[in-house]
Amino acid sequence: MLSSKLKVPIVFISSLFMVQAELHAQAFSEQAWEGNWIVEGSFFEVGIEIENSVMTISQVESMGFVWTSKSAKVEGSIATVEIEYGGVTGVAQAELVSEDTTVVFALSCEPNYMVICLLTKDQRVIFRKINASD
Questions:
Q1: 9: cis peptide before it, omega within 30°?
Q2: What are 71-85's pLDDT values in tens digits?
Q3: Residue 84: partners with Cβ closer than 8 Å, 6 or more residues away
Q4: pLDDT score of 12 more than 80
Q5: Which is it for strands 45-51 and 101-110: parallel, antiparallel or unpaired?
Q6: Do residues 6 and 91 lie in contact, with contact meaning Cβ atoms separated by under 8 Å?
Q7: Whose CB among 39, 89, 124, 134 lies 3.0–4.6 Å from 44's, allowing a Cys bridge?
Q8: Is-above-0.70 flag for pTM?
Q9: 92 to each of 2, 68, 116, 121, how far by Cα in Å?
């Protein structure tokens, strides 16, 4: 059993970690998502707008790919969106890891025998936020 002298520092340290985690979760407002994002090492670019926790994604430079997306759901630093491309339907998850970096990966891809599903399995794409002057 822990002595009462040891319990106080452990509770204090635990509460510091909880406060730090809460501050990190609140660090990114919905506005951090808004703007233009480009895939690292590519010209593929999307525009993001958010209203009432609903994200709208628009094609800026799709590099010839014809795709559609539904409105995305945003919860803090995580966004999920349904995307359709070439007969494939999938759900992508994006995590805002800093104010200018988002990591995106496929949560699902159907039908899973399609080549695009095979190519995206276990892959991550890094998007970088760009300024209007870039």
A1: no
A2: 898 988 999 999 999
A3: 67, 68, 69, 90
A4: no
A5: unpaired
A6: no
A7: 39
A8: yes
A9: 46, 12, 13, 11
H or E element at residue 23: helix 4-26
Instruction: Report the pLDDT averaged over residues 17-32.
Output: 55
What are the structure tokens assigned to 79, written together?
Answer: 């966004």
pLDDT digits (tens, 9 = 90+) for 82-104: 999 988 999 999 999 999 999 99
Amino acid code (one letter) for 83: I
Angle at 96 between CA 54 and CA 64, to 5 degrees: 75
**Count of beta carbons in the 10 Å neighbourhood of residue 48:** 22
Q: Could you list the beta-strand ranges (E) of the chain.
A: 35-39, 45-51, 54-61, 67-69, 72-75, 78-85, 88-98, 101-110, 125-130
